[in-house]
Structures are given as structure tokens and as C-alpha cells.
Amino acid sequence: MNTLIVAPLLIPLATLVATLLARRSPRAVTALSLAGALALSAAGLALVGIAAQGQILATQAGDWAAPYGITLVIDRLSAAMVAITGIVGTATLVFALARDDDPARSRDFHPLVHGLLVGVCGAFITGDVFNLYVWFEVLLVGSFALLVLGGGQRRLSGTVVYVVLNLVATMMFLLAAGMLYGASGSLNMALLAQAFTAGEVPASAHASVVLMLTAFSIKAALFPVFGWLPASYHVAWTPVSALFAGLLTKVGVYALIRIVTLFWPDASIAHEVLLWVACATMLIGVLGAAAQVEVRRILSFHIVSQVGYMILGLALATPLALAGAVFYLIHHIVVKANLFFIGGIAARLTGSERLAAMGGLYTRAPWLALLFAIPALSLAGIPPLSGFWAKFVLVKASLDASAWIAAAVALVTGIFTLLSMSKIWNEAFLKPHPAGREGECGAVGMRPAVWAVSALAAMTVAIGLGAGPVMDYAVAAAEQLGAPAAYIAAVTGAGGR
Amino acid sequence: MEIIVAITVGLLVAIGIWMLLDRGLLRVVLGIVVLGNGVNLAVFSAGRLDGRAAAFVTEAGAPALAANPLPQALVLTAIVIGFALFVFALAVLKRSWELHGNVETDRITAVAEEPAPDLPAPAGEDKA
């Protein structure tokens, strides 16, 4: 049992080393990399199977009891996030098999992706504030190198923006972690949660949590600190930007959910602030998307607006709202990565990702039109796709909590999202190709990309049609989040001599 | 001692942020380093500064005035990570210098926001 807890760290780490050792043979690198990603997905699903029973897995590094050893904890939310990380990672690697002339399609891609996955999984399963900082740094180093992979002026410039703002956010987090330790004498999340709920911490500890949440807000691209995201995501190679779009901001969202539910389970001011931030994020994100004329830039702004929904769930803090946030996380990662993939395929087929220079895809590639329609309609929240259930639950939770404005903003944002998606649909799919370049850019060697996209689209449909079990899981995960006592008990009771 | 450290941290963070707001990318990168050192010092001071003895805990218990080893370990980790990130930032800076000539942050943002270049038609590929 205990070995499975560390599997989300060991599998990508081992794959990272193996792909580096096998550098000489590109085929071996690809095979090892895919095997590693599949193993990570399998481990994630196994963890979901265990977590679904309601058990919280916890272990202490080196078997030192709670305040001394670094704690790893896997509850329902962590398990689901690890599983979805493995699945999106696998889809990215499969997509990257497709023929592509981009210089980023190199051997370095595989070890870097696994380096990123180590950081992401580590952030999802750690139970220690400083350890969370370390995992953030691990995933940052991987993401820096992935973003700039392939080089060129545009990519380098986007990387500069991304690097500077993420480093500032990370330093804020480090400072907050140090201050929190100075104020409370502990970095273990469970012990801190105990101290916070018992009111045993000085005011400066609360101040450092505010600083920490600000840092996570930058990572999660919340209003008003989202500017770095749409300024950098569109420059990367397609699989890279899809992986980022799916996972990276969600690590920030996960950290926000974890810290707020543990430290401030019923602090009304924090939830009030988060509620307004969530509304502004939803609205500004979707309005920003309306002004964009390139596929990936539109989608980047939609990441911002979608993150707002998850934070809305966290801000309302009712069990139903938290369940909505968890469901939204699961649904969003799949849909968002898929839309970036499809944008990449569309750009390949039309020769551009500027909407003005695209067109004719509906006649040229009707299968792609169908594959685009599924995640696009899901993103906008059209029944019976996954996004509908996510939005439905969040709007219902807002109405139950009499947060009328939040409910209205959530609905309006849904309408604008649909408008944005129909803009891409009209320009890239319906309108004839402006330069008559159809057929000039071939679909040769694109089959792996289509597999990856089809698999994720099938997942979206499955989450939509089988929303019952997924929602049950999300509700159960929200119950665990709403009652941190079990989490604390699992950590303090685990390991130790 | 605490006051000196607190003022130093404040100064370093202020200088770091001031440099981050500069137009030249070189200053921005150096600003990150200064800010990082300020933050490291702040984390270090979180474990009290009056510790004088090494924290060897014996059967008799911890020595009086033992230094707190945890923030020292944290800072060590942060310094190592910060150094790696600084080197990466320098590499990006050098490459930007080679590609752009002058490395003004406004220019960097403008280049990143340029319209996406059209993909060249893959050479020697059959029509699908």
C-alpha cells in the first residue's frame, strides 16, 4: 500500500532517467516515455480505486513521525488529480508522435515532460508546505525548458514573460512558507490545519497564508494577476502548450483548494474575496478572449475564465460547490488540453493559427469538425457533455448560497464562451480558406495526433454521459475537503516510530 | 541583530522589486537575484537568530541556545534551486541578446504578441 503512494513520484522520475540514458536511440526514448506515462496513468487509476473507498493514504518520508518526516498524503482529490495528470501526459506524448517540422520535436522533449510530471504529481500528493514549494520549482524548471524548446524570437520572448512572473510568484510562496514556519513552528499541512482551526497561531501566520494564496493566485492565473498566461502559452509547441493548458494552472488551483479548505475552513472574509476574484476572473477572461484573433490565444484566455469557475466553487465552500469545483477540475483538464491539440491540428491543416488565414476545415476534414465540437460545446456547457454538469452544479450551488451575482456571471460567461467557440467554428471550419491553400498542407503522419484527440474527446463524452459516478466521486472528495479531521488523523496517525 | 536583518531584508526586497520594474532585461534578471536573496534571508531569520550551539540532540536533550537547523536546511534548498533558475534566466537573457540586440522588456512583450507566423507547407509531402 505504501509503495503505491510514492508511485506518482517514482514512475515519472524513473522514466526521466531512463529516457536520458537511452538518448542515443530515439525509438527507445519514445517507447520508454510512453510506457512511463501509461504506468503513471495506471498508478493514478489504482490510487483512485483505493481513495474511492474513502481511505486517506498517508506516509512519512524515512518513517519519521509527522512533524519531522515529509508527509505524502493521497485523498480522493489528490488521487483524481494524479490519474488525470497521467492521462493527459500520455495523450500529450501520443500527440507528439505525429509528424511535425517544429524544431521542438526533439529527444529532449520526453525527459522534460516527465520532469514536469514529477513536479505536478509531487505538488498533488505532498502534505508539507515547503515540500510543495520544492515541487513547484521542479515543475517550473521543466516548464521553462519545455516552453522555450525549439527556440526562435517569439518563443524566447514568451518564455521571458513566463519565467520572470513565475519566479516572482515562487519567491512570494517561499517567503510565505518561511514566515509561516516562523509564526507557527511547523510546515506540516495537517499540523498547521490543527493549529489554525484551534486558533493557536498568531496573526502573522494568517498574513503569511494571505501571501501564499496570492502566490497561488498568480500560478492559477486569477484576476488581476493572469497577464502572464495569455502572453506566453501561445508561443510554445502545440503538445507543450496543451500540456501546460491542461495541468499547470490547475496545480495552482489545487494548492488554493488544499490550503483554503485546510487552514481557513470557515473564514468568511477569505471566501468573500475569493468569490469576487472568481467572478472577475470568469468575466475578464472570457471578454479578453473575445478580442483575440488566434486560436491558441483565444483558448489561453478561456483557461483564465474557466479557472474562475473552480475558484467560485472554492469560494462558496458549501459541499455541493466544492464538489462542483472538483468535477470542474477533472472535466476542464481533459477538455482544455484537447482544444489546444485540435487547434494544433487545425493549424497544420490550414497552414496558420490566425483565424483570418484559416478556413475550409468543415469540407476538408469533417472528422476534425466533430472532434472540435465535442470539447468546444463541453467547454461552453452544453448538455449532455461534461461541462454542462460542472457548470450546472456550480450555478445551483451559487443559487443555494444566494450568491445571485456569481450565478449570473457564471451563466453569462457560459454564453460568451459559446460565442467564442462559434467564432473559431465560423472562421476555421465554415468559411472557405482565404488563400485557397486547402490541400497544400497535408495531414500525412497526423494519425497519432488524431488518436490522442479522439481518446480525450471520448473521455469528455464519457464524463458527460456517465456524470453520475464521476459526480458521486466529486461529492465524496468534497466531503473529505470539507471535513479536514480525517486528513489530519491520517497524517498524525501514519508512520512514526 | 533582528533589526539589522529585518532592515536588510526590507532593503533587498525593495531593491529587487525596483530592479524588476526596470526596462532593461538584464536589470530584471538581476532584480530576481536580489529579491531572491532578500527572501532567503527572511526565511533564514524565521528560525530565530540567537542560536549559538550546533543542534546536536543527545540523550540529555538539546543544548541550550541551540540553533534551529530547519530554516537553514530550507534556505540551503532554496539557494540551490534559485541558483539553477538564475542560470536558466541568464541563458534566456543571453539568447535574447543574440536574437534581439537590445533587450528591452517592451520589445520582448511586443515580439511575444506578434501574430503567429504561417506554417510553411511541409516539403515533399503528399497531399492528403
How would you describe this protein?
The complex is a heterodimer of chains A (497) and B (128). Chain A has 497 residues and is mainly alpha-helical. Chain A has 2 domains: 1-265 and 484-497, no CATH class; 266-465, no CATH class. Helix content of chain A is 75%, strand content 2%. Chain A has a two-stranded antiparallel sheet. The mean pLDDT of chain A is 89. With 128 residues, chain B is mostly helical. Chain B has one domain (2-49, 67-111): Helix Hairpins, CATH 1.10.287.3510. Chain B is elongated, with a radius of gyration of 23 Å.
Note the main attributes of this structure:
heterodimer; A: 497 residues; mainly alpha; 2 domains; two-stranded antiparallel ribbon; 19 helices; B: mainly alpha; 0% strand; disordered C terminus
Q: What is the topological layout?
A:
The complex is a heterodimer of chains A (497) and B (128).
Chain A: H1 2-21, H2 26-52, E1 57-60, E2 71-74, H3 76-95, H4 109-125, H5 129-148, H6 153-184, H7 189-197, H8 203-220, H9 238-263, H10 268-290, H11 295-316, H12 319-350, H13 361-364, H14 366-380, H15 386-400, H16 404-430, H17 447-465, H18 467-482, H19 485-493
Antiparallel strand pairs in A: 1-2
Helix pairs in contact in A: 1-2, 1-4, 2-3, 3-4, 3-9, 3-12, 3-17, 4-5, 4-9, 5-6, 5-9, 6-8, 7-19, 8-9, 9-11, 9-12, 10-11, 10-16, 11-12, 11-15, 11-16, 12-14, 12-15, 12-17, 12-18, 14-16, 14-17, 15-16, 15-17
Chain B: H1 2-20, H2 25-45, H3 69-100, H4 105-112
Task: Describe the structure concisely for a colleague.
Chain A has about 500 residues and is an all-alpha fold.
Q: Please tally the helical runs of chain A, counting DSSP H or I stretches of 4 or more residues.
A: 19
What are the segments of chain B in which pLDDT stays under 50 over at least 5 consecutive residues? 123-128
Distance between termini of chain B? 73 Å
Rg of chain A, rounded, reads 21 Å
- Please state the overall shape of chain B, judged from the principal axes of the Cα atoms: elongated
Question: Strand portion of chain A, in percent?
Answer: under 5%
How much of the sequence lies in strands of chain B comes to under 5%
Element-by-element helix/strand order of chain A: HHEEHHHHHHHHHHHHHHHHH
Question: What fraction, in percent, of the residue positions of chain A are helical?
Answer: over 70%
Name the assembly state: heterodimer
* CATH top level label of chain B: Mainly Alpha
Q: At CATH's second level, what is the architecture of chain B?
A: Orthogonal Bundle
CATH fold assignment of chain B = Helix Hairpins
Distance between the termini of chain A: 18 Å
